[in-house]
Write a structure and sequence with these properties.
With 96 residues, the chain is an all-alpha fold. It is built from 3 helices and no strands.
Length: 96
């Protein structure tokens, strides 16, 4: 594991953002589990895709991957899940 031996600050900043992202994910998942009216496959798919994206991002950060093509693919997939969630939220809001 390279761990940014040449530039520790990049590594620490990357981990900081990853940790903030994970904390937001945990809070969103808690909220989802506490609100049964939100249960849907779109949310489940979103959380599953976040897990995959986070694992790929950890790998890229820890190895200083210079060609993170899989990460870009995961990010595109995650962004699609975010769009699906946003569409679902609009539908739920209009149903109120």
């Amino acid at each position: 594991i390279a761990i940014y031996q040449e530039n520790t600050s990049k590594y620490l900043i990357s981990l900081g953002f990853l940790n903030k992202s994970y904390m937001t994910y945990i809070e969103a998942k808690r909220f989802y589990r506490e609100n049964e009216e939100l249960v849907s496959v779109e949310f489940d798919n979103f959380f599953d895709m976040y897990d995959k994206l986070e694992n790929e991002l950890k790998q890229v950060i820890s190895t200083e991957d210079k060609n993170p093509s899989l990460l870009h693919s995961r990010l595109d997939q995650f962004q699609q899940k975010v769009e699906n969630i946003n569409d679902l939220i609009k539908v739920l809001q209009n149903a109120r």
